[in-house]
Design brief:
The complex is a heterodimer. By secondary structure, chain A is mostly helical. Chain A contains five helices and one strand. The longest helix of chain A is centred in the middle third of the chain and has 36 residues, at 82-117.
Chain lengths: 172, 185
C-alpha cells in the first residue's frame, strides 16, 4: 500500500473531538457496526495484503513508458520509397491509438462529472461536455469512416477531401 | 429367573389355548397394548418406489466427467502457477525513465509472465520492425530489378545491338568477295 506522509514533519493539530458523554446506557450501534466491519473485513484484508507485500518485497521490478521518435510523415516521403511509407504508416497507427485513448480519457472525465453531479449535470458539467463534444467532433472528422482497414494513406486522402470541400465552400 | 420360566410357560399355555389368534404370539403376549385404530400415524416418508423409464444418460455423464477431468488436468496446475506468480512475484510499478538509460524491450511490460515471454520467447519489437523493413527493401529491389529488366529488354529488342535477341547466322567470314565469272556464281 502506498506509504503515508511524514507525520513528524507535518504534525497533526490536537484533536478537538469532545469527550464521550453518554447519557444513555444503551450501546452505540454505529460503534458496534464499525467495530464489526473492522474485525470482519478490514483486519483480514489488511493482514493478507501485508503478507503478500512481504512475499513480493524481494522481487520488485519496474516498467517504463516507451517513447517513440518522430519520423517523416507520408507527405514527406519520396514516391516509391516503401521504407519511408512503412515508417510513416507505423507512426500513423501509433498516433491513431493515442487519439483513441485521448477520446476515452475525455469521455471518462465527462462520465465522472455526470456521476458526481447527479441530476444537475446539465448545468454544472458544461466544460467537460463542451470538451467532449469538441474532441469527438475532431476525431470523427479525422478518423471517422475510415473503417477497419484504415491506413495513413486513406486518412491523408480524407484530409485532402476535407481541404477540397473547405476550399470549395470558401470560393462558393 | 424363576419368574422368567413362569412367564414363558404362561405364554406357551396361552398359545396352546388359542393358537390361531394373532395376539397370542409369544413375542407380544406380555407387552401387547390395545390397538387404537382412530389415531394411526400417516407419513409420506418414502412413497411408493417407482421404476422410472428414461433414456440412458450414461454417455452424457461420462462425456462431462471426462471433459471435467481433462480440463482440470492442465487447468489446475496452470491456475496454481499463475496464482503463485501473482502472489510471490508481483506486477511491476510504473516509473519515469531515468536520463541516459535505455530500458530493455521487456521492461516496457507490467505483468511478470508477459515480461518473461517478451524476454525469452519473442524478438524485440525493434528487431521485428527492422526485419519488416528489410523484407520491404528486398521486395523493392526485386520490383526495381524487374522494371529495369523490362526496360533493357525493350531497348535491346528495338536497337538489336545488345546480347539479347540475337539470331544465329552464318559466319560473315565465309562470304566470298572475289570477283565471279557469271552473275549467278
Amino acid at each position: 500500500m502506498p506509504a503515508d506522509y511524514d507525520k513528524g514533519a507535518y504534525p497533526e493539530p490536537p484533536r478537538q473531538t469532545p469527550a464521550v458523554d453518554k447519557q444513555t446506557a444503551l450501546p452505540n450501534p454505529a460503534l458496534i457496526l464499525s467495530k464489526l466491519f473492522y474485525y470482519s473485513v478490514d483486519l483480514p484484508v489488511t493482514t493478507f495484503r501485508d503478507a503478500v507485500d512481504s512475499f513480493r518485497a524481494n522481487n520488485k521490478s519496474v516498467y517504463y513508458h516507451q517513447k517513440f521518435r518522430r519520423v517523416p510523415d507520408l507527405i514527406d516521403c519520396q514516391e516509391g520509397d516503401y521504407i519511408c511509407y512503412y515508417e510513416a504508416e507505423m507512426q500513423w497507427r501509433r498516433d491513431y491509438k493515442v487519439d483513441q485513448e485521448i477520446v476515452k480519457v475525455i469521455q471518462e472525465r465527462m462520465r465522472a462529472c455526470h456521476q458526481r453531479e447527479g441530476a444537475s449535470y446539465h448545468q454544472n458539467c458544461g466544460k467537460e461536455i463542451q470538451q467532449f463534444n469538441e474532441v469527438t467532433k475532431n476525431f470523427q472528422s479525422r478518423y471517422g469512416d475510415l473503417g477497419a482497414y484504415a491506413s495513413g494513406r486513406k486518412c491523408l486522402m480524407k484530409q485532402k477531401e476535407r481541404m477540397m470541400a473547405a476550399a470549395q465552400a470558401q470560393s462558393a | 429367573m424363576v419368574g422368567m420360566s413362569v412367564l414363558r410357560s404362561a405364554a406357551a399355555f396361552a398359545a396352546r389355548l388359542s393358537p390361531l389368534k394373532s395376539g397370542n404370539n409369544a413375542a407380544n403376549l406380555l407387552s401387547r397394548t390395545i390397538p387404537r385404530t382412530d389415531k394411526v400415524a400417516v407419513r409420506w416418508g418414502h412413497g411408493k418406489k417407482l421404476f422410472v423409464i428414461k433414456p440412458s444418460d450414461y454417455y452424457d455423464r461420462r462425456f462431462l466427467h471426462l471433459l471435467q477431468y481433462y480440463v482440470l488436468l492442465t487447468g489446475v496446475p496452470v491456475a496454481v502457477f499463475v496464482t503463485c506468480v501473482n502472489v510471490f512475484v508481483g506486477e511491476a510499478e510504473l516509473v519515469e525513465t531515468p536520463e541516459d538509460y535505455e530500458p530493455e524491450h521487456w521492461e516496457y511490460y507490467k505483468h511478470p509472465i508477459t515480461r518473461w515471454i517478451a524476454r525469452n520467447v519473442y524478438d524485440s519489437p525493434v528487431k521485428d520492425y527492422e526485419k519488416m523493413m528489410a523484407a520491404i527493401q528486398i521486395e523493392k529491389e526485386k520490383a526495381d530489378t524487374r522494371l529495369t529488366q523490362l526496360e533493357v529488354r525493350r531497348h535491346m529488342r528495338q536497337k538489336g545491338d545488345g546480347p539479347w535477341f540475337q539470331r544465329p547466322t552464318l559466319d560473315k567470314g565465309l562470304i566470298d568477295y572475289s570477283p565471279k565469272s557469271t552473275p549467278d556464281n
